[in-house]
């Protein structure tokens, strides 16, 4: 292992579950300050966590709600808070209304934004388009984030990762895992314009594979609906029925459900086939 690339690239190379090398050893070999390895979570108090848990429940049910309606729903539940606080908590959670809107989103100014390539395009084949998204997961004493890489046509989840921070590194790990575990790559990779997906760490991985990069803009705003359905399903069918106290507990529950979703859950849109049988990669999905 050599000290190569800039600091962000070296940080992305660190594997939290490496079979032989500890995180401390990897940091030393790569010249990375361990104290700066993982960004700190935004500070949240107990009341904020309760509000965020309620927000997640409302948003999972109604992802098209904006700040005003979310605040009204929270008021109905007894949380008397203002729109600024709702906006702040939504930012921590990484959520926004899934509706068509003016060009008011604010991706990271330092990152390059790529054009939207899917306008009026029918996705008819596996590996034609992959996509990725992140969702917020409430925890008893904090929160975590789940990212998934999905094949657009088959709806198969090709890889996923859990992290207690919404950094770029865990998204890049999921991307690398999808490429390695399937032995394939898409023609186009579509995401939103979030800082994780517009970062050089993420886009450089795709460029290296010769994958065209597409980012949602004013195009088909409904493109993200099916992955929102994935989030709704895993939360209602698994996470809200089981208790979990650590990221490790959460990771085990996600692994169980993803196995069920890919290999046993039949989809009407796939003529009642499963996502994995439709995708049929040469290797098994990496958990």
TrEMBL record:
A Pfam family this chain is assigned to: HTH_21
One GO MF term: nucleic acid binding
Domain Integrase catalytic intervals: 121-283
GO biological process terms, semicolon-separated: DNA integration
InterPro entries, alphabetized: HTH-like_dom (IPR025948), Integrase_cat-core (IPR001584), RNaseH-like_sf (IPR012337), RNaseH_sf (IPR036397), Transpos_IS3 (IPR048020), Transposase_IS3/IS150/IS904 (IPR050900)
SUPFAM superfamilies linked: Ribonuclease H-like (SSF53098)
NCBIfam families registered for this protein in UniProt: transpos_IS3
Protein name per its UniProtKB record: IS3 family transposase
Organism of origin: Oceaniferula marina
């Amino acid at each position: 292992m050599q000290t190569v690339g800039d600091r962000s690239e070296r940080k992305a190379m660190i594997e939290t579950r490496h079979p032989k090398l500890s995180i401390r050893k990897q940091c030393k070999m790569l010249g990375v300050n361990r104290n700066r390895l993982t960004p700190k979570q935004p500070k949240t108090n107990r009341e904020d966590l309760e509000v965020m848990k309620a927000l997640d429940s409302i948003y999972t049910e109604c992802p098209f709600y904006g700040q005003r309606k979310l605040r009204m729903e929270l008021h109905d539940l007894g949380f008397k808070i203002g729109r600024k606080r709702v906006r702040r908590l939504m930012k921590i959670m990484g959520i926004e209304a899934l509706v068509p809107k003016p060009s008011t989103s604010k991706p990271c100014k330092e990152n390059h934004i790529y054009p939207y390539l899917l306008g009026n395009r029918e996705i008819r084949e596996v590996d034609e388009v992959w996509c990725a998204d992140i969702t917020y997961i409430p925890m008893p004493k904090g929160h975590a984030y789940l990212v998934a890489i999905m094949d657009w046509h088959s709806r198969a989840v090709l890889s996923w990762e859990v992290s207690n921070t919404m950094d770029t590194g865990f998204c890049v790990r999921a991307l690398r895992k999808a490429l390695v575990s399937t032995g394939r790559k898409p023609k186009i990779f579509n995401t939103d314009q979030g800082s994780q997906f517009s970062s050089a760490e993420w886009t450089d991985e795709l460029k290296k594979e010769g994958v065209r990069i597409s980012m949602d803009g004013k195009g088909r705003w409904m493109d993200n609906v099916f992955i929102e359905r994935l989030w709704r399903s895993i939360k209602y069918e698994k996470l809200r029925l089981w208790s979990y106290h650590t990221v490790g507990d959460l990771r085990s529950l996600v692994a169980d459900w993803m196995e069920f979703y890919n290999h046993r859950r039949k989809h009407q849109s796939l003529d009642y086939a499963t996502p994995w049988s439709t995708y049929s990669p040469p290797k098994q999905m990496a958990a």
